Amino acid sequence: MSTATATSLLRFATAGSVDDGKSTLVGRLLHDSKSVLADQLEAVEHASRSRGKEAPDLALLTDGLRAEREQGITIDVAYRYFATPRRRFILADTPGHVQYTRNMVTGASTAELAVVLVDARNGVVEQTRRHAAVAALLRVPHVVLAVNKMDLVEYAEPVFARIAEEFTAYAASLGVKDVLTVPISALAGDNVVEPSSHMDWYGGPTLLEHLETVPVGSDPSAESARFPVQYVIRPQTEEHPDYRGYAGQLASGVLRVGDAVTLLPSGHTTTVAGIDALGRETDVAWAPQSVTVRLADDLDVSRGDLIAAGALPVPTKDIEATVSHLSERPLRAGDKVLLKHTTRTVRALVKEIGYRIDITAPIGQGGLEQRPAPEGLNVNDIGHVVLRTAEPLALDAYGDNRRTGSFLLIDPADGTTLTAGMAGEAFDTVRATDTTEEDWV
Asked: Whole-model pTM?
């Protein structure tokens, strides 16, 4: 899909360090695109006056929790839905604090674009590199660097050029292929929705213009079909005495009646006999439609099985993956966990934690390097693990398929989510180092 249409949908995430003005940017984007209801704006104006501000504090449009308003920070991921005549949007506004980096993983996991914000006075800082690395880790295809508070540096082009060059080089080292840098002032509205009259040296699009026109989605016909079975439908009524259908959401690719498919992990083969969507028969279905698939042969298929076509993953019990640890409880070698992959959940053992990845070092001072992890992975750590599952799983490499290459590790004792995993290596640029854990600390 190369151009925007009135019905296209863009999921994007925002990230930035504390006090970079991210909430103000999101508020400005919503306000200037006329996506704020009158009562919402009135409530923001009232809250702003109560805090002694003459103009509306647009950051209050997104910082909805009381603690967020009191501290002036973003804590939780806030999802906002808005639309322009050219496109619909789902925005995941993620926190800026280091201790909430795991929240960015949640917000960016389904995003097709990430907006990383920096303060023009501070430039690229450690948290900027962290956000860029998380976006690269999650294979977010488009990244925008919004250089904010340009009004506080007198709209100086050299300041913007220096920051843009540094960030673009770092993003390229992470494997990010599409990076756009935009100079903005969220407070004044420069280059957010309307072009700035203060920066005539910038010839690129405004932030909203880019969001409206960036290519979204992919061609399902170019992807291998993956259909995780969520539920087996057997009504056994007089009208449908022999009906057996497998309901779920097509994770990728296209399925057509007559297609040869393989059931994983069993490896049995059959063909698609029928597809039902919204109560009607259809000849074809494509991701991310929710449908019911009927098969030509009466095989043992249950929740968690994968109906697949095209290039097939090899079911295995041994999984190597890059993970982002989300829990305050450390992840250590020897831990027994549950692994949830699409609609399938199996018992697993953490056999080894190979290393954690240093994603904060600036260019020329280490880059992405492997660091020892003798104590396991702590919250917000990104690392490499080896898992052994009780049953074989059919995982694609995450770089090939974000839906069927991802999984969660869950605490079997209380059901809390511990870790987000991506099958395979996350970065081609990760390299070993002779630095010991003691030297690093």
From this structure: 0.84
